[in-house]
Amino acid sequence: MKRMILIAVSLGLAAAVSLPAQQRPQERERQGKEEHGRAEYHFRQEDARRLREHYSNFNHVDVKHRHRLAAGERLTGDWHKRIRPVPEEVIRELPPPPPGYVFGYIDGYAVVYDPGTGMIADVIDLANLP
C-alpha cells in the first residue's frame, strides 16, 4: 500500500514539474516584453523606400506639430482613431512583425506596434526621409 501511494505521489510530482516546463517559452516571451519594454524589430533600409513609395502624399502631415514617435515608447493620445493598417501588398514585402505586433501608419510614421498596449517596436519617419 505504501509503495502504491509513493508511486502515485511520484507520478503526480513528475506531472506537476513537467507542466511548468512546457509553459516556459511563453512565459519567457511575456517576461521579455515586460522587462525590455518592447519586442525586437528593425525596419530595413529598403523597407523605408518601399513604404515611402506607398505613402507618397505628406501634404496632410503637420510635421512641426505632431507627436514624436520612438521605438520603446507607447503611442499616445487618440492613436486608436488615427492609425491606419499598412496594406497587405506592402506587408508582404516586409519581414514579419514580432508575435502580437502589427504594422501601422500614423502622422507620417510607419510603425510596428502592439495594438493592445500601443508599445512601439520600431518606427520610420516617412515624412522626413531624404
List the helices and strands and how they pair.
Elements: H1 2-36, H2 45-54, H3 79-82, E1 84-85, H4 88-91, E2 102-106, E3 109-113, E4 120-125
Antiparallel strand pairs: 1-2, 2-3, 3-4
β-sheet strand percentage = 5-15%
Mean pLDDT: 79
Q: What count of helical segments does DSSP give?
A: 4
Shape: globular
Give a quick account of the main beta sheet: strands, pairing sense, barrel closure.
4 strands, antiparallel
Q: Within the CATH hierarchy, at the fold level, what is the topology of the largest domain?
A: Nuclear Transport Factor 2, Chain: A
CATH architectural group of the largest domain: Roll
Query: Which sequence of strands runs across the widest sheet?
Result: 1-2-3-4
Distance between the termini: 80 Å
Uncertain regions spanning at least 5 consecutive residues: 8-36
Query: What is the gyration radius calculated from CA atoms?
Result: 22 Å
In short:
The chain is α+β, with helices and mostly antiparallel strands and 130 residues long.
Protein described:
It is built from four helices and four strands. With 130 residues, it is an alpha+beta fold. It has two domains: 36 residues; 84 residues, Nuclear Transport Factor 2, Chain: A (Roll), CATH 3.10.450. The chain has a four-stranded antiparallel β-sheet. It is globular, with a radius of gyration of 22 Å.
Features:
130 residues; alpha+beta; Nuclear Transport Factor 2, Chain: A; 2 domains; 4-stranded antiparallel β-sheet; 4 strands; 14% strand; globular
